[in-house]
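One thing: can you check what follows?
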Amino acid sequence: MASLSTLLAFLLLLFLSTTTSTLLQAVTTNSDLVSRTCSQTPDPNMCESMLRADPRTSGVSDPEELLLIMIDAVKSRFTDSLRYAQDLTRKTRDPQVGRALQECIQFYRVVLDANVVEATNAVKQGDPKFGEQAMLDSANEAEACRSGFPEGKVPAELPGRTRLLHGVSNVAASLIKTLE
């Protein structure tokens, strides 16, 4: 009976060590995929930060899946900035700032309603060139928003938001380019 207990204990330990090793290998492989993929972008740190912040990344084994997660990050950041611009529009009393914010809202809606959809479809359908252009256009829309404000009247958070939107859009565009 003691030898049966010993054998069962040994088999359990063997199973656990194999399972742990397999899990560690999967995590390492995924981590390597994120690092390898992001190293091909103009901002590897931003790329890794965005991807690792999304829990879906842990189960990804394909660069195309990472790319779709990055496009979702673009969508999320533009959605947040759209809400920010809408909130400021309700609060501002300056007509020039109000007009510039309305333009930003239009630019952000173009990104959300057209560019993100186009990039996602292009990647899924295996035609990445159009997705790359859509993400480059998104970066340009962020810059167009910022440049629409009169001198000295740019809302305090907007330059930082513009850098983030521009950066994440360019990272997504460069990731899409790797599929070409």
